[in-house]
Amino acid sequence: MKNFRKVIQMLTGRFDNSEQFHSLSEEEQQTFPFAIHNNTILNGLIVNRPKEFDGVFLHEESYYTLNNKEKFKSDIFLFSTDESGDVVLKSITVPKELINTKFNELNEIDFTVLSVSDKFVPLHYKEHEGTFIGESHSMFTKKTAFILKQELSDEALVIKEEMFNGNKRVFGFDRPIIYKRILSKN
Prior knowledge:
Structural class: mainly beta
Number of domains: 1
CATH class: Mainly Beta
Number of strands: 15
Shape: globular
Low-confidence stretches: none
Helix content: 10-25%
Mean pLDDT: 94
CATH topology: Lipocalin
Strand content: over 45%
CATH superfamily: CpcT/CpeT domain
């Protein structure tokens, strides 16, 4: 349970890759995004959860700016533990009206309208010296593959997402995005 709380703590908050992005050459910046992640625990908005439910829903807002064009997407993930105690990330399929909704636009969500994606292979985190590492390889269609690699630590979220149509990469980058926590100024 300690690892579960640690993973949720590492993932929750506002992150960007400004340090990584500004270290790139101007040429590299043309093919690599400036990215922001806002990750918020969603359980407080989920109604009708079963009493025995002990998972954590996390709402992720992602903003990617590439060549002065911003793209936005949001996802909901479910975090739980498996029988060996490892933390598991599952992707949630949401009703159409919740697709790409910002957290501040959400109202109560009924637990029964959320389902675990049958296309996304759950990512299992393994802890190594305070860093949690996980990888998932999913086939969304016969030709569409999605690969997710994550490395979570107190220093950064290192995330590499790639989608392939056959052998052609249609989303993703050669290097992972290195997100660092943005400290709020109080």
